[in-house]
Amino acid sequence: MPESNRIRLASRLSRVSPSKTFAVAALASELRARGVDVIDFGPGEPDFGTPLAIRVAAKRAIDAGYTRYTNVPGCDELRDAIVRKYADKYGLALTKRNVVAGTGGKQELFNVAFCILDPGDEVVIPAPYWVSFPDQVVLAGGEPVFVQTTIEDRFRPTAALIESGFSSRTRAVILNSPCNPSGAVVQEAELRKIVELCASRGALLIYDETYEFFVYDGQRHASVMSWFDEYPSSMVAIGSLSKSFAMTGWRLGYAVGHPDLIAAMSNLQSHSTSNPSSISQMAGVAALQGDPADVRTMYEAYVERRKWLVPALNEIPGLECAVPDGAFYVFPRVKSLFGKRGIRDSQDVATYLLEAAAVAVVPGSAFGQDDYVRLSYATSLESIKEGVRRMREAIEALG
Ligand SMILES: Cc1ncc(COP(=O)(O)O)c(C=O)c1O
User: Fold this and answer.
1) Using one digit for the tens of pLDDT, what is the confidence trace for 262-310?
2) 52-289 shares the fold of 3-49+293-396
3) By C-alpha distance, which of 124, 128, 81, 71 is closest to 102?
4) Cα radius of gyration (the chain)
5) Exposed, middle or buried by CB within 10 Å (0-12, 13-18, 19+), for 230?
6) 180: Cβ below 6 Å to ligand 1?
7) What are the boundaries of each domain within the chain?
8) Prior bond of 128 cis (ω within 30°)
9) Is 44 in the pocket of ligand 1 (CB under 6 A)?
10) Global pTM?
11) Distance 209 CA to ligand 1 centre (A)
C-alpha cells in the first residue's frame, strides 16, 4: 500500500490491543453464522433481560421528553439516588459533588486513570485482572505493575501482596472485588489493611465494585467506602448498573470519591462524551430505587449454576477449579493440558475447545494468567450442562 494511503496512528495505540474477551465473542459468532451450535461461556454479561420496571421508567422518560443533554456528571435525580445508596449501605453523608455518572463503569475507570496519572506513574494491579485495567493505565501514560494471586489462595489479594508491587513511583492500586475473572472477594479485614497501605503510601485505591451484588455462601461485599470518612483522598469507588440490573446495553456507571477528583473527572468527561444518555439515567434511578426482588432472581440463578458447575469442572481430568466467592465466572486451571496435541498455552486451549467441542471460553492470558481459562456462567443451566459435557469429551480425547 502506498505510504500516502496509510493512517498514521499515535504511538500510544501501539501499546494496547483490542479487548480479548470481544475477540473470542467474535470468533464464536463467526462459527454460529456458519451454522455451528456454539455453547458460549465467553460473554461477561447477564443472560437476563433488563427488569420491567426499569424499561417502563425509560419509556416514560422518552414520552416525557427527557431526551436532552443533562448536567455532565449526571442529573440530580440519579446522583441523589447514588448518594442515598451509599448512605443506606455505609452510613455516609455524601453529596452530589462526590458522584459522577458516565457511560459505563468502564468510562469512569478510564477517566480516573486519565485524571491521576503522569508519564511513568505506576499502578499496582493484582492478576488475574479485568482485561481493560492495564490498557487503560497504558493509554493514560502510566505503567501497570502486576502482582500474582494464586489459586491456592482462591485468588484473594492481600495487603502484603499488593505492597510487594509498590515502588517510589506507585500512584495507584486497582482492586476489583468480586473479581472478574476469578470471582475472588477481598475480605473486609484485608481490605482495611489495603486501604491503610494506600493511605500511608500516598496511593489512590481505585476500587471496582461492579459485581457487588453477586457474593455467595453467606459472605458480604466489603467496600472501601466504609472508610471514606477517614481516608477521602485515598480511594475512589467505581460502580456499574450493567451486571447488577442486567443493563449492559444502557451504558451507565459511576464513580464516588473526593470532590476534587470527581470535578476533574467531570471536566474530562465534558470534553469526551458529556453526560451519559438521559434516558438511561432515568432507567438507572428506577433500578437503584427499585424492587430488590429483580436482582434476587438473577442472584439465585447464579447460585444454582455455580453450585452445579464448579464440582462438574473439577471432575474433568486435568482441570482444577477454585470455588469463586462472587461475580459469575469460574477460572479453572488448564495447565495440565499444555503439551498435549500441540497445545502450548491458554489461547490454544480456547481454540481447541472451540474447534473440537464448539465451546467458547476466554483464554487466561487475557487476564494476565496464562495457566487458566475463564468461563462465564451467565448462561442457562441447560447450556452449562451441555457445554461441560462437550468439554469433558474433548479433553478426555486429548489422552
Ligand atoms: C470488572 C469490571 N469492571 C468494569 C466493567 C465495565 O462495565 P460497564 O462499562 O458495562 O459498566 C466490567 C465489564 O465487564 C467489568 O467486568
Assistant:
1) 999 999 999 999 999 999 999 999 999 998 998 999 999 999 999 999 9
2) no
3) 71
4) 21
5) exposed
6) yes
7) 3-49+293-396, 52-289
8) yes
9) yes
10) 0.96
11) 9
- d(CA 95, ligand 1 centre) in Å: 24
Distance, CA of 125 to CA of 165 (rounded, Å): 8
Distances, alpha carbon 265 to alpha carbons 13, 68, 102, 260, in Å: 22, 21, 10, 9
> Which CATH class for the 3-49+293-396 domain?
alpha beta
Residue type, 43: P
- Residue 314 neighbours by CB distance under 10 Å: 15
**How many angstroms is it from 115 CA to the middle of ligand 1?**
19
Instruction: For the chain, give the number of residues.
Output: 399
Reading the block at residue 334, the C-alpha cell is 488448564
- Ligand 1 close to Cβ of residue 79 (< 6 A): no
Q: pLDDT by residue (tens digit) across 210-251?
A: 999 999 999 999 999 999 999 999 999 999 999 999 999 999
CATH of domain 52-289: 3.40.640.10
Q: Which of 45, 106, 108 to probe ligand 1 with, by most ligand atoms within 8 A of CB?
A: 106
pLDDT per residue as tens digits for the range 242-259: 999 999 999 999 999 999
Sorted by sequence, the CB contacts under 8 Å of residue 134 that are 6+ apart come out as 125, 144, 146, 368
